[in-house]
């Protein structure tokens, strides 16, 4: 809350934050109205978005890694990011103000995952089919995205580019009104399912012998992961690497037990994205897309830990 | 007689020696050498009769100079997305396309059209060198980047290239004189009375030009003019919305140069944005459309916009100002088309927000 392009003294931020409860604090502020607006309408929603999106993407990545029993899986594996990117492009390039990119991105990310599920659900080897179909659906939506980019004006391309790199600058109460509850509910749902993920990460035969309805459990994990990733991507754009790196970092710290990995991924992911966003909005006079920092910070740190531990945990 | 023949031979030899080597040697003997916006030296053939341009600013300038019939190929944006070009040069709708939206130029088409010269924007550096190397056709990279003085320089330079110096001088003089008269009307406005203006451009609330001379020429101050651009070769940057609150501008201008379905940011939306509720411009409801960038720049359009803004900032200084009448007169001066600005406003539905002026 203390970081931003406007260097408001910390004590004034504190006063502005408490002023709705204690109106007398306003008198000590040099520009009370704008300070309070900056704190409540700009910094607070952005902080909440970074916190919730970081938690949601990390939990989604951790859950899908457990489900697919594959350390290379990330939160976008089921074609979600390409679907969302195409949805945002449709809005930014063709539809204008009447159809916001958040809604379009959310809708198309869900469409992409539904397409993957519809194609792969009846396969004998469902996990491999889901992964393979995810890659194919991603490629299909990427081609559609390229087509939309081809017809875009230079200005639309700039907006789209920022969105594709992850952009928390559009955070406000209106876009958050729907996405925050979705991210919150889905993240809590996956955290509640953490012990079942330990069962799902066993072989199907072992899981069945423990009395688990594998199909329903998998479907529920995929549904919740899709819900929170779509909700986060719709308002924050495509923020890469969090869902891959954060669960690995957590496993390096606490081991492979999903009962600890999933909630700690939420905490670490939230902190990581807040840190990246602090850098994104304070290092230059212009906004640097936050996705650049998640990669610039996350990847070297991940390589460092990988070299140190010499082991990939799953 | 012998002496005369000797003189002719010597003169011809000297003429040959004085002509610099030129890649497209068959076409020209006397060449004009110019420096383009990338500081490249380019030898221009003495007769330029066939031009390809993928730089909309130059394409329109060529039409304004009365040389539209030299255009043999244009870019996608100009031909299909530029209503101003459609109005001022309807014949352009039949010109072949040589590049698409991403400026991926069709080299085979370029060669087929046999141009004497190709104009490109300096933003596409790789196209500039690749095109000249592969086709051996002189390529000129030109752009004013919105600077009024460079627009005038550019008009004069293209006028020299096309042998239309007199028309270029006429347009440059008209441009300078209109701005001089405007400046004279505003000369008594003290610096601290000039409105501080934030511009929301390119379909984003937080994308703003760091250099926008129409605002300055109209007697305003662009609050973002000391920032750096966020991409090389552009004059815009993306700012944090908190920065807009901090600047606390008197007026917010929204890029309105799109047809309504393409407008991402609108004055109504800005006025309803709770994050900006404490900003002076929003409290005073001084959030308006302006024209903004026009597929690069256009002398006629930029002049019209400057007058529009001056009247917005200082309505009392321009009693009886009629935007349509002024705009139509400017378009007629540059392009010889009657009612051009009115037609343009109708296409873009700018008349929804310019009718008050």
Helix content of chain B: 40-55%
Q: What number of structural domains do the residues of chain A give?
A: 1
Biggest interface between protein chains, with counts per chain? A-B, 38 and 44 residues
Work out the strand percent of chain B: 5-15%
Which regions of chain B are unreliable across 5 or more consecutive residues at pLDDT < 50? 1-28
Overall form of chain B:
globular
Quantity of strands of chain A, as a count: 0
Mean pLDDT of chain A: 84
Rg estimate of chain B, integer Å: 23 Å
Instruction: Supply the CATH superfamily name of the largest domain in chain B.
Output: Nitrogenase molybdenum iron protein domain
What value does the average pLDDT of chain B take? 84
- Largest sheet, strands/sense/barrel of chain B: 5 strands, parallel
Helical content of chain A, roughly? over 70%
Note the gap between the termini of chain B. 74 Å
Oligomer: heterodimer
Give the uncertain stretches of chain A in residue-range form: none
CATH class of chain A: Mainly Alpha
Describe this structure as you would to a colleague.
The complex is a heterodimer of chains A (314) and B (357). Chain A is built from 13 helices and no strands. Chain A is mainly α and 314 residues long. Chain A has a single domain (10-309), classed as Orthogonal Bundle (ABC transporter involved in vitamin B12 uptake, BtuC). In chain A, helix 2 (32-68) packs across helix 11 (242-254), helix 3 (80-95) runs parallel beside helix 5 and helix 8 crosses helix 12. Chain A starts with 9 loop residues before the first helix and ends in a 5-residue tail after the last helix. In chain A, 51% of the residues are buried. The model of chain A has no long low-confidence stretch (mean pLDDT 84). Chain B has 357 residues and is an alpha/beta fold. Chain B has two domains: 18-170, Nitrogenase molybdenum iron protein domain (Rossmann fold, 3-Layer(aba) Sandwich); 192-354, Nitrogenase molybdenum iron protein domain (Rossmann fold). Chain B has helices at 2-18, 56-64, 76-81, 83-88, 107-113, 125-135, 148-162, 165-186, 213-217, 241-247, 267-272, 280-283, 299-313, 323-335, 340-348, 351-354, and strands spanning 31-35, 41-45, 51-53, 71-75, 97-99, 117-120, 139-141, 196-200, 207-209, 221-222, 236-238, 251-255, 287-290. Chain B has a five-stranded parallel beta sheet, with helices on both faces. In chain B, strands 10-8-12-13 form a four-stranded parallel beta sheet. Chain B has a two-stranded antiparallel sheet with strand order 1-2. In chain B, helix 6 links the parallel strand 6 (117-120) and strand 7. In chain B, helix 7 runs antiparallel to helix 8 (165-186) and helix 13 runs antiparallel to helix 14. The radius of gyration of chain B is 23 Å and the shape is globular. Chains A and B meet through helix 2 and helix 6 of A and strand 11 and helix 10 of B.
């Amino acid at each position: 809350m203390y970081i931003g392009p406007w260097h408001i003294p910390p004590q004034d931020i504190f006063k502005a934050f408490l002023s709705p409860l204690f109106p007398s604090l306003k008198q000590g502020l040099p520009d009370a109205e704008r300070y309070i607006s900056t704190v409540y309408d700009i910094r607070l929603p952005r902080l909440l978005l970074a916190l919730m999106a970081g938690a949601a993407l990390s939990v989604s990545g951790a859950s899908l890694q457990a489900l697919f029993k594959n350390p290379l899986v990330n939160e976008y594996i089921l074609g979600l990011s390409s679907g969302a990117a195409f949805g945002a492009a449709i809005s930014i390039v063709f539809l204008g103000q009447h159809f916001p990119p958040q809604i379009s991105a959310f809708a198309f990310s869900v469409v992409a995952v539904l397409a993957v599920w519809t194609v792969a659900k009846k396969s004998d080897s469902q996990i491999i089919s889901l992964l393979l179909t995810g890659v194919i659906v991603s490629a299909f939506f990427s081609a559609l995205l390229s087509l939309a980019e081809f017809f875009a004006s230079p200005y639309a391309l700039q907006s789209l580019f920022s969105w594709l790199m992850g952009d928390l600058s559009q955070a406000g109460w209106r876009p958050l009104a729907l996405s925050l509850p979705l991210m919150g509910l889905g993240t809590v749902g996956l955290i509640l399912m953490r012990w079942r993920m330990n069962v799902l990460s066993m072989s199907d035969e072992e899981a069945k012998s423990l009395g688990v309805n594998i199909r329903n459990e998998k479907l529920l994990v995929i549904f919740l992961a899709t819900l929170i990733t779509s909700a986060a991507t719709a308002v924050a754009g495509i923020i890469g690497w969090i869902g891959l790196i954060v669960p690995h970092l957590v496993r390096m710290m606490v081991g492979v037990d999903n009962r600890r990995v999933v909630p700690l991924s939420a905490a670490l992911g939230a902190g990581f994205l807040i840190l990246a966003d602090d850098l994104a909005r304070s290092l230059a006079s212009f906004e640097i897309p936050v996705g650049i920092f998640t990669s610039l910070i996350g990847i070297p740190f991940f390589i460092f830990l990988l070299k140190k531990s010499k082991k990939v945990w799953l | 007689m012998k002496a005369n023949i000797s003189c002719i031979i010597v003169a011809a030899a000297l003429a040959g020696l004085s002509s610099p080597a030129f890649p497209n040697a068959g076409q020209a003997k006397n060449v004009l050498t110019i420096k383009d916006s990338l500081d490249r030296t380019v030898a221009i053939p003495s007769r330029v009769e066939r031009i390809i341009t993928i730089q909309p600013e130059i394409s329109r300038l060529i039409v304004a100079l009365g040389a539209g019939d030299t255009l043999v190929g244009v870019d996608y944006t100009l031909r299909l997305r530029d209503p101003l070009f459609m109005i001022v040069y309807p014949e352009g709708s039949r010109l072949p396309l040589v590049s698409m939206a991403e400026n991926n130029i069709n080299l085979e088409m370029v060669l087929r059209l046999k141009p004497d010269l190709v104009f490109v924007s300096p933003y596409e550096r790789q196209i500039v060198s690749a095109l000249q190397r592969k086709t051996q056709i002189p390529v000129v990279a030109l752009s004013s980047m919105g600077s009024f003085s460079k627009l005038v320089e550019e008009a004069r330079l293209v006028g020299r290239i096309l042998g239309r110096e007199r028309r270029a001088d006429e347009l440059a003089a008209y441009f300078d004189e209109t701005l001089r008269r405007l400046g004279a009307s505003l000369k008594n406005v003290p610096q601290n009375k000039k409105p501080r203006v934030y511009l929301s451009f390119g379909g984003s609330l937080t994308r703003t030009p760091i250099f926008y001379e129409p605002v300055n020429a109209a007697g305003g101050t662009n609050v973002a003019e000391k920032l750096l651009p966020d991409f090389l070769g552009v004059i815009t940057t993306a700012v944090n919305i908190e920065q807009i609150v901090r600047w606390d501008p008197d007026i917010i201008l929204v890029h309105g140069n799109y047809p309504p379905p393409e407008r991402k940011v609108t004055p109504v939306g800005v006025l309803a944005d709770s994050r900006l509720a404490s900003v002076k411009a929003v409290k005073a409801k001084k959030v308006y459309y302006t024209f903004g960038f026009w597929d690069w720049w256009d002398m006629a359009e930029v002049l019209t916009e400057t007058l529009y803004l001056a009247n917005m900032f200082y309505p009392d200084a321009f009693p009886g100002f009629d935007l349509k009448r002024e705009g139509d007169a400017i378009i007629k001066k540059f392009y010889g088309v009657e009612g051009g600005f009115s037609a343009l406003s109708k296409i873009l539905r700018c008349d929804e927000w310019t009718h008050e002026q």
